[in-house]
Amino acid sequence: MTRTIAVIPAGGAGTRLWPRSRRSTPKHALPLGGGGRPLLRDAYERATAVADEVFILTEDGQREIIAGVLPEVDPAHMIMEPLARGTTNAYGLAALTLVERNPDAVMLTLPADHVVRGKAQVARAVRTAVSTAARTESIVAIGLKPTFPSTGLGYIHAPRRGPAGTYRVARFVEKPDLATARRFLKSGAYYWNLAWFSWLLPVFVEELERHAPLHMKGLRQVVEARNAGNLQAAAELYAKLPVEVVDRSVMEKTDRLLLVPAEFEWADIGNWAELAEQVRSDASGNSVEGESILIDTRNSVVLGDRRLIAAIGLEDLIIVDTEDALLVCPRSRAQDVKAVVDALRRAGKTQYL
Predict the structure, then answer these.
(1) Which residues fall within 8 angstroms of residue 189, CB to CB, at 6 or more apart?
(2) Predicted pLDDT at 275
(3) DSSP code for 76
């Protein structure tokens, strides 16, 4: 029986969730799913339920953060990037690391920063993806039918049936405009891209060699330096690798891609407006955490930290208060919070990052 190895990518900081999500408290270390537990903890338990072995894929700078959330994970089950260099390099490093130990295993990617509900539905979709990847030597994506025309998510167009309940992928579409997203929703042949992938390790290595040869040449040098015990050389080599997301480098080019449709509840929570969907709203449509007094205030997101928030006559706003920073913006501009982080970085105000 083919061994399943789940890899949980746990990097990045979630810049659109500033000021709560920062380098020291990245998105996956925050309790954003409504259950009071870090997203990474939920992801780990989700992975252990469907895989024979679980690895955390992260960067050196987050080693202590990961250990704080998952103290039971030993160093041997952590795949460390010297620094973040995009998902092509991250997944490639993971695949080359694991294929040396388990050359016939299926690798399953389950990102650390998603909110997911429906254990039975998740297990069903993952088992189908893993068995299909092993049986057909394909790369298999798990996708969800969109429930609204999201402009903040990527889509997978899979119009034709494939083997055993799968669909053949025609193309990836990254974050469409509203009119296009509405057309995708109406079509019925488009699925949200969850970045949940499954592949036989040798198959993914082959596809990286075929479609991302520069990455693979550098990654093999990185692994060779690591195996020789020269971690400094490995880090220097890794820092020189070209940065690209795996969707563009491999998924958009491979002819071995299938999709498994799933039916569980899922949210990426890419910004504060999306988080509001996970927080119960009051009779006025306000999503509130912390202590507040709201007067004539409607459809707003009000998230406190250590002090009372009082609001009068507001509508469709986002207010996020922390110990050292306060964010206020229209709910419609939630995607633009990343611009604040960029501005802080340019101004050298790194204490707020």
Answers:
(1) 157, 158, 159
(2) 79
(3) G
Evaluate if residue 296 carries a pLDDT over 80.
Answer: yes
**Residue closest to 176 by CA, chosen among 185, 165, 189:** 185
* Matching residue, tokens 């979630």: 14
Partners of residue 75 on adjacent β-strands: none
How many CB atoms are closer than 10 A to CB 213?
A: 10
Averaged over 183-188, what is the pLDDT?
A: 92
Strand partners, 192: 144, 155
3-state secondary structure of 176: coil
**In order of start, what are the domains of the chain with their CATH numbers?**
4-267 (3.90.550.10), 272-352 (no CATH)
Q: Which residues of 89-127 are buried (b: 16+ CB within 10 A; e: fewer)?
A: bbbbbbbbbbbeebeebbbbbbbbbbbbeeeeebebbbe
What the block records as the tokens of 269 is 């929570």
Per-residue pLDDT of 12-31, as tens digits, reads: 767 888 998 888 888 899 88
- The first and second tokens of residue 181, run together, are 């997203």
pLDDT (tens digit, 9 = 90+) per residue, 134-148? 999 999 999 999 998
Residue 172 reports pLDDT greater than 80: yes
Burial of 160 (0-12, 13-18, 19+ CB in 10 A): exposed
- Judge whether 219 and 205 are in contact, CB under 8 Å: no
pLDDT in tens, 38-64: 999 999 999 999 999 999 999 998 999
Nearest to 219 by CA among 204, 234, 197: 234
**Which pLDDT score, from 0 to 100, does residue 151 have?**
83
